[in-house]
Design brief:
Length: 102
């Protein structure tokens, strides 16, 4: 079975609200593992597992919310903006300051 068919089956079987809840839970689990990693825990397998979980749930969220292929269009625009930022090569603090307005 291809991923999009599995996503559609999961949404049909458990419904959109439950799958949105699971997506939020999986993103939280990834955030927890990334935080542990930054604090020095050697948990790369756990981080990778949670990335896989999040990717699966994002596939389902895409199936729910992306009716007009907006995600790919937005991602391409944002990637172009990121590429432009990288070419201008500001320091990390410049990026943070620009985002926070400081
Ligand atoms: Mg998980």
């Amino acid at each position: 079975m291809i991923p999009n068919e599995i996503y559609a089956q999961a949404l049909k079987q458990w419904g959109k609200p439950m799958q949105v809840i699971i997506a939020l839970e999986e993103m939280s689990e990834l955030a927890k593992e990334l935080t542990k990693n930054l604090r020095g825990k050697e948990n790369v397998p756990e981080v990778c597992e949670e990335i896989a979980d999040v990717e699966i749930m994002l596939g389902q969220m895409r199936a729910v919310f992306d009716e007009e292929n907006q995600i790919d269009i937005m991602r391409d625009k944002k990637l172009m903006r990121l590429e432009d930022m990288l070419q201008k090569n500001p320091s990390a603090s410049d990026v943070v300051n620009r985002r926070t307005g400081t």
